[in-house]
Amino acid sequence: xxxxxxxxxxxxxxxxxxxxxxxxxxxxxxxxxxxxxxxxxxxxxxxxxxxxxxxxxxxxxxxxxxxxxxxxxxxxxxxxxxxxxxxxxxxxxxxxxxxxxxxxxxxx
Length: 108
Prior knowledge:
Blueprint: H1 2-31, H2 35-62, H3 70-103
Helix pairs in contact: 1-2, 1-3, 2-3
């Protein structure tokens, strides 16, 4: 489950946070408060980090070789590796989307 969560939920979360931030810009500008945008972005960053960490743990647990079915474990390890990279990339994207919110007012 950790693998599929990172492969599917992390990119979907990036898009959802971006869409929600765009929807909240008018509210943040009207109230002159950027905290709703920052809170949503912080949630996205933390969730992406947690997903990437879970995928990484799954990948590390599959690396030691076992004699039961090496081909099956190799496939699972490769999928967990890909999930780790997708989760890490989603985290990086979340951080780069959050960075301008620290510098710019929502009313620009």
